[in-house]
# Entry
Amino acid sequence: MEIMNETLENISEMLDTKKISSVELVNESLKSIEATKDLNILHEVCRDNALEMAKDIDAKRANGEKLSKLAGIPIVIKDNISMVGTYTTCSSKFLENYKSPYNATVVDKLLQAGAIIVGKANMDEFAMGSSSENCAFGVVHNPRNPEYVPGGSSGGSASAVAANQCFGSLGTDTGGSIRQPSSFCGVVGLKPTYGLVSRYGVVAFASSLDQVGPITKTVRDNAIMLEAIAGYDNNEFTSAKHDKESYYKDSFKNSIKGLKIGYAKEFFESLNNQDVIKSMENAMNFFKENGAEIVDIELPHIKDALAVYYVLSSAEAASNLARFDGIKYGVAAKEYNDLIDFYFKSRTQGFGSEVKRRIMLGNFVLSSGYFDAYYNKAKAVQNLIITEFSNAFKNCDVILSPTTPTSAFKIGEKVNNPLEMYLNDIFTVPVNIATLPAISVPCGIAQNGMPLGMQLIGNRFSESTLFNVADYYERNCFSFREVK
Amino acid sequence: MEYDVVIGLEVHSELKTKSKVFCSCKNEFGGEPNTHCCPVCIGLPGALPIPNKEAVKMTIKAGLAVGSQINDIAIFERKNYFYPDLAKAYQISQAVRPICIGGGVEIEDKNGHKKYIRLNRIHLEEDAGKLIHNSKIGGTMVDYNRGGVPLIEIVSEADMSSAEEAVAYLSKLRNILQYIEVSDCKMEQGSLRCDVNISLKPKGSEKLGVRAEMKNLNSFRSVTRAIEYEIKRQSRLLDEGEEVIQETRRWDDARNRSFSMRRKEDAQDYRYFPDPDLLPFKIERSLVEEVKRTMPKLREEKINDYVNDLGLSEYDASVLTNDLNLVKYFEKVISYFNKPKFVCNFILTTLLKKVKEDEENDDLVIPIEPQNFANLLQMYESGQISQAICRELFDEIWTTNEDCLKIVKERNLVQNNNEDEIKEMLKVLIEEFPQSVQDYKAGNTKALSFFIGQLMKKTQGKANAQIASKLIKEMLD
# Structure
């Protein structure tokens, strides 16, 4: 299973030069999955299908066909992404037996690129949570230390990469759900610009904030994956008509000379975790020493982003999750008095408590009499935040912040305190509110032995800039290889 | 006490686009249950809507036809409520920024008095599926074929004051929507539906009374009856000093009365908010201009054409153009048999009478194929068949739609136009009924019809009545 330590980039090279076959690789991946199954990372392993596809790719390669960089490589996807032939449960009891009859666009794109989807990863139910403890099929354990949470909601996706079950995974990020677990697990996670990657077939949590993105060991691996899944989708009205970019080929300049890195005190003044403070100081020194300039910027309203987020995301979620009524699929109450009772019981039985909390919150802020005070107010503040970021990017290329206020915490530690749990996303949420891209890369090890993450935020569609800066940092300062 | 009646209508009309409003499924009435469905219109997890441009255009067209303003930016919103026919548990609709604002239509009563009914708005939304109660399995099933069919809601101001005005307004709207070809407006199939808001206030009073909303009005007749019923119900309450409660009532056509569905305090909070999957969309002026250019002729223009080009009378043209189905039928018939005045006469007298025998036939369904009907009229006009035979055949093919040429041939119904033969037969009759000859000579002209009647009986209606009348008169005088 040594081979599973490799990066996606190297493995791609090895496949290309026939040092290993895809079938061998998938078998290694399946072995690794079996060896780490106690971490409860995957809900479903697509063994037969994966081997079948690997055979197919090997045959194509033997025929001399030109294949994409992802061809034949084991990949994991989050369990809220629809894929024919698999369950799409969103780690909810409600959808325990739900199989989608159609593929998400990102799945079609991965399959077209020849990627081998080996499993579907556990998550916080319907992507609501920051610890992967809100999972109907058991909590996910952090591969760096199983006593710790892997973060969430894409905890399974980040763990699958950290545990060497695969070479890359897809997560979804509504308020930090890719970056926060990537930070907790010591891997690289990208939340792309809203609209860059298709949401079609991805079970919606908050439609205006959700975005699919890759989780990988290295920044270069991440660029390879983004290239495969990005692009306009005519099945999605909010999809961006952005020209296709060759992220892998064009992003990496191996220099950050003259780069302006924005420093907003709002991201740092509330920090009280010494590990995080230290890692940020180190990062800033590194950037300065290597020719970048640190410029002060102001983002006074990002302190309100979390409040805005819980109003908007809950409102949208309440409406998006209303279709889970037991009539068409999913949990249907067996005994009930009338239609209302049927809805009530089916939803009570099917949803976990965090999901119920968000549905109630969302319906509350949408009710007549409260709509202006909450929803419209939140929308107004969102516009302020968007404007502040866009002004900030007039003076800098990227903005630096910690990904999370602390490193990973222990399983059970925050499960009874939802507000404290929500604070985990305080640095990641503003990015979604402002529809921007951001990447989290490992940047140190905390006292508790758990990895730390650094967030780089870019302007809309500046993914290649983020890749360049993050890659430079990773090659010259700190990388996943230092995380044990 | 005397009351002023205040009525406003919400009219729903299904657009006849090729595909549904947010997916590419067929927009077609009927079909095996759940066969015109996809992940989008049955609201599967992860599926996303894409607005149908054709539906937006048709909504603009409807707006332009009734003088609405077209908004520069329109917003789709979610109307959230639970019901099994609503797959996503929300309906994509429009609240704060519909596509069309304002406008109005002019109606006319029997005495030619005109009245302008203002419109509040026209918005675009999606239809829900249909519940089917299945007694065999003792349960209710859902058919989502209709789910996602584009629907426009046309909301009037409360400018009407009687059932007659409401019906005039509704038929005027239907006429317009049919002419601009955005909807079939078939009440029977539910492609035109109507809710009525109605309240009473003391005659001359400025203050509006409490209103009730009537639902489930599926024909012009039920609109009339429901309004009349509601006026009686509310005035009785007010006369007795009781309160009218703000509520939604369901009209039961079979029992000829309405029932309370839900009261104001039970009214649902629909929690409208902008659909995040459908960003506010810009309606380009160029699109509005394009729709303007493709606007088909409205009724007034048709009437002009018929009077000037086809030589119909103003009155005949006006009756004929009252319904687009009739117009289309008429135009098809004259494409086979180009005698517009003759065809129009027969339609306005015999055919319309037949249509109206069925009170529920609001959609003016004409079961005879236009070509078959044209053949029938041609045979009659050219004297091949008699008027009597023509009428009989018309009644027959109305139910069977069998080829009238074939029937005439098989049963040998061709009219006898031979003067000598008719004369011979009349001679026999004159000998047979001397008393009637006496009657005629004494001045009773009815005796002539008696002879014609006898002649028709003898010939099974095949004798040419016109020739026979002329002859009998000559013979007796």
